[in-house]
């Protein structure tokens, strides 16, 4: 798959580069960032590999279980009217939720057009699919 270069955004992003691998057709980089969707390394990424469910339906549940202690920025000692429950995330607190919200109708339709590999499964666990989504608010930063 050949990926077109996307212009760098003129913004500063905070990320830490952990590793780089030079492969035949591209360079693969591993970064740590607070939010890959809002703060990609260097202000852009050519491809976003998004963890998703097998049906590629986004976040149909109102919240998701958290496997570890929540990060400090998600903890609050005051009730603010937004509480998913202990050890739970809202859709906008997970990458799949953000990607589906920002990808909008175009991403939903692109996922719906993918064929089922098994009943209710468009992308089996451990595999990947590529969507071509235009327009959406993520398109300036990522190829989805």
Topology record:
Elements: E1 15-22, E2 27-33, E3 64-65, E4 88-89, H1 95-113
Give a quick summary of the entry.
The chain is an alpha+beta fold and 144 residues long.
List keywords for this structure.
single chain, 144 residues, alpha+beta, two-stranded antiparallel ribbon, 1 helix, 13% helix, globular
Structure description:
It is a single chain. The protein is an alpha+beta fold and 144 residues long. It is 13% helix and 13% strand. It has one helix and four strands. The two termini are 13 Å apart. InterPro entries: Macro_dom-like (IPR043472).
What structural class results from the helix and strand content? alpha+beta
Q: Major sheet, described briefly?
A: 2 strands, antiparallel
What is the H/E string? EEEEH
How far apart the termini lie comes to 13 Å
Range of strand content: 5-15%
Helix content: 10-25%
Count the DSSP helices. Answer: 1
Give the mean pLDDT: 71
Order of strands, main sheet, comes to 1-2
Question: Looking at the structure, what is the overall shape?
Answer: globular
Count of individual beta strands: 4
Radius of gyration based on Cα positions: 17 Å
Low-confidence stretches: 1-13
InterPro entries: Macro_dom-like
